Amino acid sequence: MGELGRIIETDACVAEGADWLRRADPRFAPALDACGPLPLRRRPDGFAQLLSAIVSQQVSVASAAAIWARLQAAGMVTPEAIRAVDESALRDLGLSRQKAAYAGALAAAEIDFAALRRMPDAEVIATLVAVRGIGVWTAEIYAMFSLGRADVFAPGDLALQESARLLFGLEDRPKERALRQMAEAWSPWRSVAARALWAYYRHAKAREGIR
């Protein structure tokens, strides 16, 4: 089954990981120096957090916020509420046909969210991706920020790929498999490495005047 690793609960945990990363891979030093203390970025866990992730897929931040506000106002953010209506009711609130189906699948999955907190990382990811509409990236982000897992990475994330290219002086943006292999050297603090790369991405893009 595997063991439950470190859980990131405070800023001190992130700082500990950043110090380890600086020693283990000195290439991170410029990012850590430029960006200052890395953010904690902890989020709640549970059904609503995953439903919100589904709502946010492939739409602008503003659109996602508007749809989420309508779902909240209608009380459609619990599995019981979703199971009690048909998909047309969800579409009336702004969800696409596909996302309404995904919301229904998530509600029907009856995930034991308390049990997820005690599962090893790989088991968390496997449980979540078994639900229609939840991909590996969403599962990894949930494990990282809703469950506070210290050793999870999201190599499919384009910002992480681009940041690795910039920070490490790579000719091309590393693909998901290559970045996943690269990140193995950052265990047991891969989620802190991800925080550092995201922070450096924002720093580099701001420096270049790119929004």
How would you characterize this protein structure?
With 211 residues, the protein is mainly alpha-helical. It folds into two domains: 11-41 and 151-207, Endonuclease Iii, domain 2; 47-146, Endonuclease III, domain 1 (Orthogonal Bundle), CATH 1.10.340. The protein is 61% helix and 0% strand. It has 13 helices and no strands. Helix 2 (29-35) crosses helix 13, helix 9 crosses helix 10 and helix 11 packs across helix 13. The protein starts with 10 loop residues before the first helix and ends with a helix. The mean pLDDT is 94.
Key attributes of the depicted protein:
single chain, 211 residues, mainly alpha, Endonuclease Iii, domain 2, Endonuclease III, domain 1, 2 domains, 13 helices, 61% helix, 0% strand
Summarize the structure.
The chain is an all-alpha fold and 211 residues long.
Indicate the CATH architecture of the largest domain: Orthogonal Bundle
User: How many β-strand stretches?
Assistant: 0
- Terminus-to-terminus distance: 43 Å
Structural class by secondary-structure content: mainly alpha
The CATH topology of the largest domain corresponds to Endonuclease III, domain 1
DSSP summary: helix tally: 13
Low-pLDDT runs of 5+ residues are: none
